[in-house]
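Predict structure. Input: Ribonuclease H, 211 residues.
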Amino acid sequence: MAKKQKYYVVWQGRQTGVFTDWKECEAQIKGFEDARFKSFDSLKEAEEAIHRNYWEFVAKKEAGTSATKPAPASVGQPIRDSIAVDAAWNTATGDMEYQGVYLRTGERIFLQGPFSDATNNIGEFLAIVHGLAYLQKNGSNLPIYTDSRTAMSWVKKKHANTKLVLTPRNKPVFELMQRAERWLAENKYSNQILKWETEYWGENPADFGRK
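Output follows.
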């Protein structure tokens, strides 16, 4: 089955515009501070989006509008005053990056990476701990949403239980994991870490949009 064509809009990067190839888009945003971009399913959507405000598209639709089915009472709706975190892993290069966004507005709070020879689970773990440290620094008790139960488990155990092998290329990632584990061991937090219910609420607001 052929892979579905994606169209990438870059509002802020080395060059702006609509790109039909991810590699070309990546060249405009990789390493560019506060890059702003998003993928679209059709060229028409992308061409319309480039003439509009970036925040209109990263601020997700109200909860439930993009969900696959209605959320039961036991699930409810996401808390709008919260942050969401997610990671992206490139299957071709092994590069990983992660980010956090404020759910109510879609504004990006932090973006880290890309890191070489990492994994998605590591990215999800680092994203949660980064979010916790960020909220503590700002005196905030906002909850954090993630769609990774594995990362939630690692944070709870204060240990990244990865089978990834240390290499010279991914040494920076291992150093970040050690820092994250140390932070968890030395700090207390009251922020809830909650599961983002993709099945009912639609895509994680911090998703990189490259699927």
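The CA atoms of residues 99 and 177 lie 16 Å apart.
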